Amino acid sequence: MQALWLLDPKDVDAPVNLNAILYVPDAVPDFLDMTHTEVGVLLYCRRVLIQQSAKDVIPNWLRFLKGVIDSEDIPLNLSRELLQKSSILNKIKSVTLSKVVKFFQDQMKKDAENYEAFHSYYSSYFREGILKSQSQIEKEDIAKLLLFESSNQRPGKKVSFQDYCSRMQEDQREIYYLCIPNRSLAEASPYYEAVKADNLEILFCYHPADEVTMISLRQFNRFNLVSVESALQRN
C-alpha cells in the first residue's frame, strides 16, 4: 500500500500550525534491517530544516514512513535540548500519530485486501510500538491496526480488535486469545477445545511477538486480554 497523507492547518484539531506529507515507500523494508534505522521524516520550520530525522515528532516504530513535516510554530532559536522539551513538538507528535493511525484505520475499512497485504509486511512495527509505548491510550490506538485470525471466522479471514469487540457476548468482559504457530495447531489445542463449548470467540495469534505484545497491551476498550491457558487455569 502506498499511503499518502496530506495535512493542511485547517484540518488540525489542535492549536498548532502544521503541514505534512507522509507516505509509505513502494519498496518494503525488512524489519530486521530497519532495527537501527532512524526516522525517515524531515522536520522543517517555515521551510528551514530543523531535524534531518524527526525522532522528536515521529515515534521510532513509524520509521518506515517517509516525508516532510513543516510547522511555523516551532521556535527557530531554541537549542537542541530545549527543542526536545518543547510543548509544540509534543502537540505535533500527538496530532501526527493520531492522523497516521486514523489513516491506516480508514484504509482497513476501504480496502481490506490491500490493507491485509500492508499488514503482513508492517505489523511487526505495530507490535514494537505497543511494546515501547508508555501510554495505554497510545498502545490501544496502535492495537487498532493489528489483524488476527479468529475461531469464529474461516481460515485466512482476518479480524481486528474492534471486530472482536463488536461480536462479544452481552455478559462477556474479556478478550480471549491463543498464541500458537498456526491454525491447525490452534484448532487441535486442548485449550481451544475446552473453551469452544462456551461459544467464545478466540483470536489466533501466530506472530512470534504476539505473546509479549498481548501482555504489554493488557486491555483493549476496557476489556482485559486473557490467554485461554490463563482462563482455564483460573477456572
UniProtKB/TrEMBL annotation:
Pfam families: HSP90
Gene Ontology terms, MF aspect: ATP binding; ATP hydrolysis activity; ATP-dependent protein folding chaperone; unfolded protein binding
InterPro entries hit by this protein: Hsp90_fam, Ribosomal_Su5_D2-typ_SF
Superkingdom of the source species: Eukaryota
Keywords for this protein: Chaperone
Signal peptide residue numbers: none
The UniProt record lists the keyword Chaperone: yes
Homology family: Belongs to the heat shock protein 90 family.
PANTHER family: HEAT SHOCK PROTEIN 90 FAMILY MEMBER
Protein name (record): Hsp90 protein
Native source organism of the sequence: Trichinella nativa
